Amino acid sequence: MLNQPATKYTAFPPIALHDRQWPSQQITKPPVWLSTDLRDGNQALFEPMSVETKIRFFTRLVDIGFKEVEVGFPSASQTDFHFVRRLIDEKRIPDDVTPMVITQAREDLIARTVESVRGAKRAIVHLYNATAPVWRKVVFNMEVPQVMQLIQDRVAYLKKLTDAAPETEWVLQYSPETFSATELDVALQACNTAIEAWNARPGRPVIINLPTTVENATPNVFADQIEWMHRHLNQREHVVLSVHPHNDRGTGVAAAELAQMAGAQRVEGCLFGNGERCGNVDIVTLALNLYTQGVHPRLDFSDINAVAREVEEFTQIATHPRHPYAGDLVFTAFSGSHQDAIKKGFAAQKADAIWEVPYLPIDPADLGRTYDSVIRVNSQSGKGGVAYLLEKDHGVVLPRRMQVEFSAVVQRHAEAADAEVSSEEIWKLFKNTYLRAEHTELTYISHHLQEGPNDQQIIDLSWRWQGDAQTRKAAGSGPVEAACKALGVDMQVLSFEERSMGSGADALAIAIVEGSTSGVQGSRFGVGIHRNTTTASVMALISLARRLEVSLPEPADAKTN
Ligand SMILES: CC(=O)SCCNC(=O)CCNC(=O)[C@H](O)C(C)(C)COP(=O)(O)OP(=O)(O)OC[C@H]1O[C@@H](n2cnc3c(N)ncnc32)[C@H](O)[C@@H]1OP(=O)(O)O
Ligand SMILES: CC(C)C(=O)C(=O)O
C-alpha cells in the first residue's frame, strides 16, 4: 500500500446539484428489470455458457418474471447469434417478454445484430459507445464533436435498418458507456443526440441507460448524476431512464436504489451480482430489499434456494454463504442473544401481522426457506438456541432454569469439539445427561401404585443402584412424594411439570422435576419420558436423584430382590 495514495489517486468531484430532491424520495414501485445475465454476466465467465445452458437460463429468467432480457452480443460470437436465432425461430419468447441485443456503434456489427432478431415481435437494440475523457483520448482518439457524430450516424443507420423491418416493434437503447466518469454535459449531449436521431416520440420510446461501467464514487454522487440527467434530458416523457450499476466499490445496490429515488425507472443487473470484475448490481438483493419494504418486486424468488443452485450450475460460481437473502448462513444465528431474541420473536409473531422478528429482516418462509436452518449452535450460543432446537425437533419444552443448566452442558461439548453442535447431537447430550445411567448408577426398574387411606398413594418402587436391585414401599400425597420417600433420600422437590411429546396414540409424556439436596448449591433437574404419565414422573424423580448424586440409604431395610 502507498503511504500517500493522493499522489496516485484522486477523488471524484461532487456534483453541484444543491437543490437535489432524491434524498427525501421513497421507492414505492418496482423498476422495469432487465436481466443481463446472458450478456454482461456471460462475458464475465471463465467458460461462457453454451447455447443449451443459455436456453435453460433464459427459461428460468422468464419464470422468475423478467419482462426484458439482454440475450447476448450476437455480432461478437456465433454462439450468441445462434442462441438468439433459436429463441426466435423456436418461438421460445413469450409475447410479454422483450429480448435485447447489444452492439458496438459500428455499422457491420449493427447490421449483424439486427439480423439476429429479425422476425421477433418486439426487440430492443442496445447501442453503446464509451464517452468518458480517458476513453475518448486513449481508446477512440476522438474529440467530443466526433463522438457525437458517431452516435448520430450509427443511430441513424440502425433506424434505417429497423424502419425497413416494420414487422418487428423496434426499441432503441442507447448507453453512454462509462457514463459515471463522463462530464455531465457531454453525457447529456450524447443521449440527446441518440434521442433525436432515433426520432423518439409517442409510440416510439427510447431507453437511455446510464451505467457505472466502473464504479468511481460514492452512490450519492451517482444519484446526483441521475437526477441531473432526469431533469435535463430532451423528450423526457418518451425516454425510459435506466441504470446499469457495477459493483467495483461494493456499493452497486446502494447506487441502484438511490438512482431510482433520483428518477431512474429501469434497472439492469444480474442474479446474485454476477458480472464483470466485482459484478453487475445484484437484482436478487434489489428485489428482496424492495419486498422487505412492503413493495412487491414483481420477480418471484419464493424458492430462492432453487434459483441459487440453478444459477450456480449455469455460471459455475458459488453463492457466498453470507450473500443477502440467498446465502446458506443468512438465516442462521449462532450467538446466544440473537437466538434468544429470534426464539421469542417467532413465538410472538402473529400469522397475519407485520413481520417483526428480531434479527430477521424477512420471513425465511417467504423465500421457501424453513426455520430449521435459522438457529444453529456453537460455543457462542446460549440457552435460547438449544431450547429452540429441542422444542422444534423433539417437542421438549425446557423450563427456563433448566435451559440455563442444559445449555452449559451443550456449551462444554461445543468448546471441546470446537465445532457447531447439530440438533441431533443436542438430543444425544440431553438423553445422556438426563435419561441414561451407567449400570453402576441409580436406575428405575418398576413401580406399583395403589390408593391408601386419607387420599394417600402407596408406592412399591424398585430401582437398581450400584448393580443391586432394591424395592421399598412408601406413602405420600402423590406418586412423586411417595417415590421420594421410598428412595429414602435427602432431596427436596422444588418444581414439577409434565407435558406430552407429540400427539395421538404414540404420544409420550415427559416429566421434568427440579430439586435440591444439602451440600449441592442451587437446584438441578431430572427428566422421565414414558408412555404412562405416572411412570414418567417417577422416572424423573430417579433421574433427579442421580443428577444430585444423593446417597441412598444402605439397602438394609429395603426388600432386596
Ligand atoms: C461495458 C461492456 O461490457 S460493453 C460489452 C463488452 N463486450 C465485449 O466487448 C465482448 C464482445 N466484443 C467482441 O467480441 C469484439 O470486440 C467484437 C467481435 C465485437 C469486435 O471485434 P474486433 O472487430 O476485433 O474489434 P475490437 O474488439 O478489437 O474493437 C476495437 C475497435 O472497436 C472500436 N470500438 C470499441 N467499442 C466501440 C463502440 N462502442 N462503438 C464504436 N466503436 C467501438 C475501437 O475504437 C476499436 O477501433 P480501432 O480498431 O479502429 O482502434
Ligand atoms: C454497455 C454498458 C451498458 C455496459 O455494459 C457497462 O457500461 O457496463
From TrEMBL:
Residues 437-561 are annotated as: Regulatory domain. InterPro entries: 2-isopropylmalate_synth_dimer, AIPM/Hcit_synth_CS, Aldolase_TIM, IPM_Synthase, LeuA-like_post-cat, LeuA_allosteric_dom_sf, LeuA_N_DRE-TIM, PYR_CT. Pathway: Amino-acid biosynthesis; L-leucine biosynthesis; L-leucine from 3-methyl-2-oxobutanoate: step 1/4. This is 2-isopropylmalate synthase. It comes from Limnobacter litoralis. Its EC number is 2.3.3.13. The gene is leuA_2. Keywords: Amino-acid biosynthesis, Branched-chain amino acid biosynthesis, Cytoplasm, Leucine biosynthesis, Magnesium, Metal-binding, Transferase. Its cofactor is Mg(2+).
